[in-house]
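Key result, reporting period 2: structure in, sequence out.
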């Protein structure tokens, strides 16, 4: 019987699906991810690994696997996997793009509206009993989204889904990416994007070229009235530089779904800032999308084990 290792808490019905397909399954069952030691011990005789972004699949883990044919990740991002090393060992890698594009783009738009129109701040105000003045024309003023410039860094699937939404909101879209794309938006260099955007959205994957792509230098170029939105990976922003800029009012606000360290610690200074909206890495977190991600990742895993074509392979 072939064996698969599931190294994060996964849906029971999909674990059953794997068993019904004749596989022996060893599955981790806690929201706290397993240690590297546990993964190394259990991967040694596994034919397939189903992992998520909470697992670091580095050389050491890959070397511990003696018969691994496939790594299937329950994510579109794959910065947690040493892809080149795995490929050098003839291990195939599956991932889950496309199925989470709309959910993630929706969340990004939610963040844009939330931070621009101070929605979360308003909710806090009421909950903490601080709505103690009648309606006045200057109360809780936010920033209009309609007619503003959206600057998208990266132009993959999520970038394109953002363009569609931005048009509906009457925004002008500019973008920067490695190459010019055939999209209904203006291709600009990164400096111009930083200077001209009212809302900067990061829609890149994390790799050595995007690590801290938003740093002190980038933020210095942004308008004081601008907002920064990130639902990609925390490490694309230098969080220390951003926190400092927010405290000094160098930009108006930020909305972040991802962080350099997750979960963020309770003493992270971002938590204290009013002009920041924070969500706990929920870009793809809808019932529908997580089911699609489960289906794709499980089918990728089965295909990898059987030597068949995966739905999405790196
Ligand atoms: C991913 O898939 O990479 C997201 O960060 C979680 O869905």
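The corresponding designed sequence is given below.
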């Amino acid at each position: 019987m072939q064996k698969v290792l599931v190294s994060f808490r996964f849906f029971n019905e999909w674990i059953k699906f794997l068993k019904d397909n004749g596989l022996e399954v060893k599955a981790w069952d806690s929201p706290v991810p397993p240690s590297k030691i546990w993964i190394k011990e259990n991967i040694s005789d596994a034919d397939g690994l189903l992992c998520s972004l909470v697992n670091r699949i580095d050389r050491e883990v890959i070397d511990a696997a003696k018969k691994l044919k496939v790594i299937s990740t329950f994510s579109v991002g794959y910065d947690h996997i040493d892809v080149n090393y795995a490929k050098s060992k003839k291990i195939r890698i599956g991932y889950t793009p496309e199925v989470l594009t709309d959910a993630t783009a929706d969340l990004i738009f939610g963040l844009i509206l939330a931070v621009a129109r101070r929605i979360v701040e308003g909710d806090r105000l009421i909950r903490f009993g601080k709505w103690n003045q009648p309606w006045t024309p200057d109360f809780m003023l936010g920033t209009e989204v309609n007619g503003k410039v959206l600057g998208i860094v990266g132009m993959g699937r999520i970038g394109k889904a953002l363009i569609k939404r931005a048009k509906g909101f009457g925004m002008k879209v500019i973008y920067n990416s490695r190459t010019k794309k055939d999209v209904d938006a203006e291709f600009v260099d990164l400096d111009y994007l930083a200077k001209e955007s009212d809302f900067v959205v990061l829609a890149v994957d994390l790799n050595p070229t995007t690590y801290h792509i938003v740093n002190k230098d980038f933020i210095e170029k942004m308008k004081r009235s601008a907002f920064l939105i990130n639902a990609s990976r925390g490490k694309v922003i230098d969080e220390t530089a951003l926190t400092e800029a927010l405290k000094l009012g160098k930009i108006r606000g930020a909305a972040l779904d991802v962080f350099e360290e997750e979960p963020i610690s309770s003493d992270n200074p971002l938590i204290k800032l009013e002009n920041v909206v924070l969500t706990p890495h929920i870009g793809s977190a809808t019932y529908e999308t997580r089911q699609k991600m489960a289906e794709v990742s499980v089918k990728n895993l089965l295909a990898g084990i059987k030597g068949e074509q995966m739905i999405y392979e790196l």
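Residues 287-306 form the longest helix (20 residues). The longest strand covers residues 149-153. This case is discussed further under Risks and Mitigation.
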